[in-house]
Amino acid sequence: MLKPTLASDAPSLRGLRVLVTRPARQAVATVALLESRGARPTAFPIIAIEPMLDHPQVGEAVRGIAENRYDLLVFTSENGVRCFFDALLRWWPVSPDGSRGAEFESGSYLEAVRVAAVGPATAAALEEHGVRPSVVAETFLAESLAKGILQLMPKPIRVLVPTALVTREVLPQTLQRAGVVVDVVPIYRTVKASQERAGELIAMLASIDVVMLTSGSTVQHLCALLGADAAKLLAGAALASIGPITTAIAANHGISVAFTAEVSTTVGLVDALERFVAQRR
Q: pTM to 2 decimals?
């Protein structure tokens, strides 16, 4: 259980044992952030991100961008951004001389299309590739992103949503009801950790103070890994949720979270954890 014993001048999370459940690639930065605030994080990726770049539908979507068929690209996660740019390299049309064209080589190939992002972390991932979104959702929810898109582009348009194989349908359905043509293209899928590691995870939970729940798919795969006793096995730790959708999915699995971050980013979640600990000093 959470038993903070912090002095007033100590790092805010000193000694707190935190289980980081993010995919391995993203867990590195999360672990570093927690360590900078005094915590003792342990990375145990509950899910892995598996790109689906070889699927013909992905290739057709990239050709659609090259041929200016889309008015807007919509990104709902950092993973979607990373896999999308990998897909561009995989599928962008090659001319007879073997080049991808001056537009691609100069990085201006997305200038003809607007871009939307579900939150600041996704927007930051885009900006790492030199792309500044026209719309960033205010509340980290698909509903908010759809509203922003329709305010920016009220006329019927064609939208590409590169996303996970299994995802919420609120965004495309909301846009479609407004007359928008939406192509939802799975560009990656989430897969859970090997069931063979369930025993390792159960043993680890006995000495963990906080479990970070950083997505709905993480909750689903965590419960699948732990089995029917998931709620009981997690009862000894404080469960930290990154946002309301993740909290709702946890509730659907019979799991109660200790708190939900107001800002649905990793930094927002760690900030919320600091406030949670401070209240219990």
A: 0.81
pLDDT in tens, 33-64: 999 999 999 999 999 999 999 999 999 999 99
Q: Which domain holds residue 71?
A: 50-191
Q: How far apart are CA 126 and CA 82, in angstroms?
A: 8
Q: Are residues 139 and 205 in the same domain?
A: no
Q: What is the CATH number of the domain that holds 168?
A: 3.40.50.10090
Burial of residue 138 (number of CB atoms within 10 Å: 0-12, 13-18, 19+): exposed
Compute the residue count for the chain: 281
- Domain endpoint, select from 169, 191, 213: 191
How would you classify residue 38: left for phi > 0, otherwise alpha for psi between -120 and 50, otherwise beta?
left
The strands making up 17-20's β-sheet, listed across from edge to edge, are 40-43, 17-20, 210-213, 238-241, 259-260
